[in-house]
Design a protein that fits this description.
Elements lengths: L1 H17 L1 H11 L7 H4 L18 E3 L37 E7 L2 E10 L13 E3 L2 E29 L4 H7 L3 E5 L5 E34 L10 E4 L2 E18 L2 E53 L15 H17 L3 E7 L2 E8 L7 E3 L11 E6 L1 H7 L3 E6 L2 E6 L7 E6 L1
Parallel strand pairs: 1-5, 13-15
Antiparallel strand pairs: 2-3, 3-10, 4-5, 5-10, 6-7, 7-10, 8-9, 9-10, 11-12, 11-14, 14-17, 15-16
Helix pairs in contact: 1-5, 2-5
Length: 430
């Protein structure tokens, strides 16, 4: 019995030695080299010159409308706080910070879209254009779109308007004033102002003085003779003194003496005059205020959108050790076990939420080359759309920092693995 045990142990030891190189290669296939982090790559690389300076530079396209591609899915990116150090031509201009970075998925292909908002003082030459690697993918610049933007600068304005009128009646004056006023300033601002009725004021435009002759008439009856000595030489009228100017004598009655009709008494009709002057208004001046908001278009920032297309990076394989002819049968058995362990075994446990608890519903498989988990086959076992996925320690280590796509029916979610050692679990909710 001892010899049998010793022989079995010897065969297993020889098989392990012979397949050591193969196991190393397979392990390298399962755990690819770590890709640079987002902080190392999103702003890295020396930008080539603008289109026309080099044959390899992506063309820069000027657009007046938003033609951003409509990608159906997106994935999460960890953005760096500061741009990476640059060299070469990129060092000539300070590197620019993107105002927005988005990841997009289309038919399994990844794209990263970076948006830069440049002021008039900033040069598009500082936009990074070099290739970079992120999460096991290599990204290359495919296009840069340019879009001009404009902004409106507004301010409140009051315009004073003066109108000459012949009347001071407010109702008549309001009819002469337009309810709105189109206004343009010398510095380029324009807008429509509205009349503020509360500010309408009417004042005299001026006066003038003119002279005239003031007159009055008095009758003095029952005078014995047509003698002006019997008539007052001045009279008072309207606070003024008028002087006798003329007298019209009239016979009041007659008496017959010696067959001759003689006047019995006289009536004097006296006219009095005086020089006078008066002041008259020559017109009225109406002032009013029109108020409102005026605006002017000013140049805004120029928006550049850089599109990077991603391709997966093939993992490097380690050298395979030759397998000696001896111990082939035992080695084949061990090799089969290794192949099953690394390539065929189901390394993801699937738990579904049922009555407030997660219960196991099965296992599935995920690899670093194809980081996709399909939960659709578990639809008949799942009560709800809430799942917990548990990755084995080796699988979690191989996928650490990578984005996993989880499919359930016609819906998809993405999750970035942040393994800290040991098994790794996360929850998805459809």
């Amino acid at each position: 019995m001892t010899r049998i045990i010793t022989g079995v142990l010897t065969l297993l030891l020889m098989a392990a030695i012979m397949l050591g190189g193969g196991v190393t290669a397979l392990a390298a296939d399962a755990v690819p080299p770590r890709a640079p982090s987002a902080a190392e790559t999103l702003h890295s690389g020396a930008p080539p010159s603008m289109p026309g300076a080099a044959a390899t530079a992506a063309p820069e396209t000027t657009e007046t409308a938003d033609i951003t591609p409509n990608y159906p899915l997106s994935f999460t990116l960890e953005l760096s706080a500061e741009p990476a150090e640059t060299s070469g031509s990129e060092a000539a201009d300070p590197p620019l910070y993107p105002s927005d970075v988005q990841g997009a998925l289309e038919s399994g292909a990844r794209r990263i879209i970076k948006t830069y908002e440049l002021s008039a003082e900033e040069s598009p030459d500082a936009i990074p254009r070099s290739n970079f690697e992120l999460d096991g993918w290599r990204y290359e610049l495919t296009d840069i779109l340019k879009k001009e933007t404009a902004a409106a600068d507004t301010r409140e304005h009051t315009e004073n308007v003066t109108v000459s009128t012949e009347t001071k009646e407010m109702a008549a004056i309001i009819k002469l004033l337009a309810p709105t006023l189109d206004f343009s300033s010398e510095d380029g601002y324009a807008g429509t102002l509205t009349l503020d009725i509360a500010t309408v004021k009417v004042e005299q435009a001026g006066t003038k003085t003119s002279g005239y002759t003031m007159s009055a008439t008095r009758e003095y009856p029952h005078l014995s003779a047509p003698d002006t000595a019997l008539i007052p030489k001045t009279i008072a009228e309207g606070g003024r003194t008028l002087t006798l100017a003329s007298v019209d004598w009239r016979t009041q009655n007659t008496e017959t003496i010696d067959y001759e009709a003689l006047p019995g008494s006289y009536t004097a009709v006296a006219s009095y005059t005086a020089a006078a002057s008066r002041t008259v208004v020559t017109g009225y001046v109406t002032t009013a205020e029109y108020k409102g908001t005026i605006a002017k278009l000013i140049a805004g920032k120029t928006v550049y959108t850089a599109y990077f297309a991603g391709t997966p990076i093939a993992p490097e394989r380690g050298p395979m050790n030759p397998v000696p002819a001896a111990g082939t049968a035992a080695g084949a058995g061990l090799l089969g076990g290794v192949v099953f362990f690394f390539f065929l075994r189901r390394n993801v446990k699937v738990l579904s939420l049922k009555e407030g608890k997660y219960i196991p519903v099965g296992k599935t498989r995920i690899t670093a080359k194809s980081p996709v988990v399909n939960l659709t086959p578990f639809a008949d076992k799942a009560v709800t759309g809430s799942f917990i996925l548990i990755l084995g320690a080796l699988t979690a280590k191989a996928l650490s920092g990578k984005t996993i796509t989880v499919n359930y029916g016609d819906r998809s979610l993405q999750h970035i693995v942040a393994s800290g050692g040991g098994e790794y679990q996360f929850e998805v909710d459809f």
